Amino acid sequence: MAKKVWKSETTDKRVATRLKEVETVEIKDYVRDTDLHGLARNKAYRVDGVHIYADILNLGEMLQSTEAEGETCHKRTLRFLNLHYRAVYRIIAAVDAIQVDFHNQRLHLVVAKPYGDEAARVHKAVAIGQLIMDVLAKTGEDGDEKIPAAKVRVGIDTGVALAVRNGRRGNSEPLFLGVPANHAAKRAGGGTADGIYLSNEARTAIDLDEVANEDTSALTPAEVGDSQEEAALAVTADGVVRDWKKDLEANPIGKFSFSGHTPPFADLDLEVLTPGNSRRNDAISVYADIDGFTAYVADHIDDDDDAVDVVRALHVLRAELDAVLTEDFGGRKVRFIGDCVHGIIGEGTAQTADTEASASTAILCAGGLRSGFDRALELLEDEGIDVAGLGIAIGFDAGPIALTRLGMKGSMIRCATGRAVLASEHEQRRCAGDETALGSVAYGWCSDAGQKIFGSSRKRSGLTYDVALKELADDGDATAAAAKVAKAAMSMSLLEPIIAAPAAAAPSAFRFPNRDVTPTKPAGFA
Amino acid sequence: MIVTLPPDLIAKFEKALSRAGTREIGGVLVGEHVADEEFRVVDLSVQHSGGTDSCFVRHPEKHRRFMRRFFRRTGTDYARFNYLGEWHSHPLYLAVPSATDLTQMQLIVEEGANAPLFAVLLIVRLDGSERIELSATAFAPGSVPIQIEIGIQPRPDDDPTIPAPWITWRWSRPDWWRKKDVNRRKD
To answer: What ipTM was estimated for this complex?
Structure first.
């Protein structure tokens, strides 16, 4: 059971181990047919490519399709995502693009070919974006559970990014760091209108005029048509949809079936989840995003020595965030999304969440993430690694969350969805690098002490572990009081006894009464 | 407050924990009130069932005989020898009490008229080099838990709590034994 304790000494040990793993780092330029899958953790490639982000705009509508956020709503949302993921897999395979990540409503692709011809790559990216929009407009379902077609907004940028290893075990995939990935994501998330939105860099590459506002200037049908003609993709939307239908008939999506997971979520093995073996709990979704990382990468990408710092810093910082979430607070990392970690945390039983304890644990965890991050930055600086300008923005919110894996057999990807997941990302986005915010549902779950920490703005700056622990415990929060005892007790061991904490119990209490006091009831420990 | 353990109980922990692997085990502690705030753990029971990787349930019926024998040995001198507390292992986690542990122990000292005036919780685990790590926390009604100091101290020479040695008899075949019983081993 996690102790809900963050200790500087623990971070020191973890960071030392992680640093050893990236003692030597190699930076290379991406050349023809380099396999970016299964990269070593101490190797990175500089990739000149076009980044495509495709956001499914109506995921939120799916999650709001029923008044209460019950199982039906989650089943429909997961089926909606699964149908569209499977269609997009067919597109990626047909157009020779690099699939980077699928995170709920967001798809990230990179077009690295044709080499040495940026304009051709941008044209190809526009054609792929339009193909995704056309295909997903036809991959809804009219059955008993009417699943709507997806409305898609595509963002595109071009430039040099750094590809590093993302993920562990067998499902390692490339992660692209840098301005083009970030700007493409911003264009995709920059509004609620569908269409294809290019950055001015991408527009310039295909001889289009720059625009004043990249987020409101979608490509016109004629401009898209020109790119489609230039790219001349070998597949059509009708062909992809036909293959998708055949595949669905041969391999139908299993029915979604949920059971609750008994916290802590650290015990949950996400790799065994399937639609028929999904989990659903009232829990807390946490997003922790490294603030300033895109600018940091942009400043360091050109020089090999500087780029080495990027790989080291990212490896150490992400590993520390994962360790704090999982090892120190019993949460479960769902995935890394670039320089951001998404996790789930909660307390209670498989059937009933202990809402107040969950919120208190999340507050302590948010404090631990910030303290672990700050300490890791200090240690990186001590090693001569430049980490100036980095901060961490943390957001969380609470509610029913469904956990499963979606996609094609053999390459299924983790998915955690629910209104709380979208809300927690929104909370994180309204934070600067020293701030922590929580959503209205999580605020309602908090003890009085928890609500006092965040106030009516539901946002707090400088919320480190020690601050969170002290403020919660001083105001009578039970979870924090237990964590305080655990923290003090953690310093004790047989070989290194320390002076006991001040005794609050009266000394006279320590005596045996003149009777047999053996307990007669079972006692449960964890 | 200080609680001491004799080396033979450390060995008993090591053996039991090593056998249990990643499963949590536990039991009850019995002790002697040595001085003002000094107690000595004189024996402990081991319950191998009731545990998983992350929890352990101590069942009272599995320790009843252990307690009965202990009180018989110590002459039911409850003010000196009595139930001291609980122990369990954290094979996969740090040797510190969890929130559940803290709540459970507080319940033990506060629930019912027969509750002890205080109780000690020992959490034990084997470290990477198979050595015992442990923490000790004391609980009393209406007070916050406090950490307590643990010491290793050999048993006194005249320790009255040591179980009497087993008495063995030499068995010899009686005259009426059937010497031609084919099912018996030949001499």
So the answer is: 0.84
